[in-house]
Design a protein that fits this description.
37% of the residues lie in helices and 22% in strands. The two termini are 23 Å apart. The relative contact order is 0.11. Helix 5 packs parallel to helix 7. It is of the alpha/beta class and 475 residues long. The chain folds into three domains: 230 residues, TIM Barrel (Alpha-Beta Barrel), CATH 3.20.20.60; 77 residues, M1 Pyruvate Kinase, Domain 3 (Beta Barrel); 129 residues, Pyruvate Kinase, Chain: A, domain 1 (3-Layer(aba) Sandwich), CATH 3.40.1380. It contains 17 helices and 21 strands. The strands form four sheets. An eight-stranded parallel beta barrel has the order 1-2-3-12-13-14-15-16, surrounded by six helices. It has a six-stranded mixed beta sheet with strand order 6-5-9-8-7-11, with helices on one face. It has a five-stranded mixed beta sheet with strand order 19-18-17-20-21, with helices on both faces.
């Protein structure tokens, strides 16, 4: 069975993997979820790929989560007369709103919201942070800068503004169109780019209205400042290390990663670690040792999911990349120290607003280690909350999430250690909980006669968000 690790894998679909054959191979190699990047591709292409994923997952009898990753606002300079320039350290350079081709002295920056937010002394980063400008003078239409770090700059390169809050929505008009399209398709998760504050998440939730769960991408320092509130409001979090590494000092990114993973676990929210995990495998059949260590570090940190971007979307070795990531996860999870780290980093009740749901989930986690010969934890959930609380405990066992809702079952594809199963009948008759638990545990081959399973649920079963039942069954 390919989906046999606790830590999940997201593979991004793109030109390298958009065929039935490649999608099947990605699943067989260990992919648990597919990311549709709406920065690229047409709606027609995304629709065809979505239909393929759902068809293949049904044929293989596996659940694959589908993520729609919205582009978000893209802040870029305009075009240069000769396509590019080279900025020297100490040179003067102007950014303005004039709709004319750029030169060695100036370039168009068609974003009035940037000029509104700029102050003298602010730092602008261009071309993925490789060029650094300091603002000497500015108004609502232009900024005079000094080049602190020079280098080549070509047309349409990106602009980052660390530590500057921009008066700009996280959803552009393109994003809103893409969002409605993705929701009509039936995606399980929506990745929200350019989150600066918790209000951005609330705005997206008002539009989505529960039709999908929201993954907030943390790529702005201002978002880290509101970390607790953003995690609390979101359904999941992505540590988007690309832009985060541009806008924050690079040595701080590993520290931020650990902090974000820890806060997500405290709130029982899935967390994804993304960007440049196996970057060299875009063009090479094997990764660097440092990249393998990076993947392993994310797993040891307790991330629910690790993600591949260009490696599977446009790389030459997409199947090998997923397989290598899967093998790395397997090796880490075989290490006895791994679960020692997971258990020692459990968020105890004194650090959270503990209630009966937290107490039940914590007790279930204890039972998986104190009771011998336990095969699995079975959670009965309508909203997914019971399962997320169980996953927070990081048990050394599979978590079988039984739900009446197909959408909730599909969303479990990025939740640590969890597999989703749909059963509507049990939620109409509480007396069936034990028999259904036995049936699923045995038929999946996860448990054997003579072993135990730990069951958690909320009673009444159809009342979401209430975990209050803990039961042990000997098979």
């Amino acid at each position: 069975m390919p989906q046999n690790t606790r830590t999940k894998i997201i593979a991004t679909i793109g030109p390298s993997t958009a065929t039935r054959e490649k999608l099947e191979q990605l699943i067989d190699a260990g992919a648990d979820a597919f990311r549709f990047n709406f920065s690229h591709g047409t709606h027609a292409e995304h629709k065809e790929r979505y239909k393929l994923v759902r068809k293949i997952s049904k044929e293989k009898n596996v659940r694959i989560s589908v993520l729609a990753d919205l582009q978000g606002p893209k802040l870029r300079v305009g075009e240069f007369k000769n396509g590019s320039i080279v900025l020297a350290k100490g040179a003067k350079f102007v950014l303005d709103m004039k709709p004319i081709l750029g030169s060695q002295e100036r370039v168009t920056l068609p974003h009035p919201e940037i000029f509104k937010a700029l102050k003298v002394g602010d730092i602008l980063l261009l071309n993925d942070g490789n060029i650094r400008l300091k603002v000497d003078a500015c108004d609502k239409k232009h900024a005079e800068t000094t080049v602190l770090v020079g280098g080549p700059l070509s047309s349409h390169k990106g602009v980052n503004l660390p530590n500057i809050h921009l008066p700009i929505s996280a959803l552009t008009e393109k994003d809103k169109e893409d969002l409605e399209f993705a929701l009509k398709l039936g995606v399980d998760w929506v990745c929200l780019s350019f989150v600066q504050k918790v209000a951005d998440v609330k705005m997206a939730k008002e539009i989505i209205k529960g039709r999908a769960w929201i993954i907030s991408k943390l790529e702005k320092p201002s978002a880290v400042e509101e970390l607790e509130d953003i995690v609390g409001e979101s359904d999941a979090i992505m540590v988007a290390r690309g832009d985060l590494g541009v806008e924050c000092p690079l040595p701080t990114v590993p520290v931020l990663q650990k902090k974000i993973v820890s806060v997500c676990r405290k709130h029982a929210k899935p967390v994804i670690v993304a960007t440049q995990m196996l970057e060299s495998m875009i063009n090479a059949p094997t990764p660097t040792r440092a990249e393998i260590s990076d993947v392993a570090a994310a797993v040891y940190d307790g991330a629910d999911t690790v993600m591949l971007s260009a490696e599977t979307a446009a790389g030459q070795y997409p199947i090998e990349a997923v397989s290598m990531m899967h093998q790395t996860i397997e090796e880490v999870e075989k290490d006895p120290l791994f679960y020692h780290f997971m258990h020692s980093s459990r968020i105890r009740s004194e650090f959270i607003n503990s209630d009966e749901a937290d107490a039940i989930s914590c007790a279930a986690g204890d039972m998986t280690t104190e009771l011998r010969n336990v095969a699995a934890v079975v959670t009965f959930t309508t909203s997914g909350a019971t399962t997320l609380l169980t996953a927070r405990e990081r048990p050394d066992l599979p978590i079988l999430a039984v739900t009446p809702d197909e959408e909730v079952a599909n969303r479990m594809g990025i939740v640590w250690g969890t597999r989703g199963y749909v059963n509507k009948g049990v939620f109409k008759n509480f007396n069936n909980v034990e028999s259904i638990s036995r049936k699923i545990a045995l038929e999946t081959g996860i448990a054997k006669i003579g072993q135990y399973i730990v069951v958690t649920a909320g009673f009444p079963l159809l009342k979401g968000g209430k975990t209050n039942l803990l039961h042990i069954i000997k098979l």
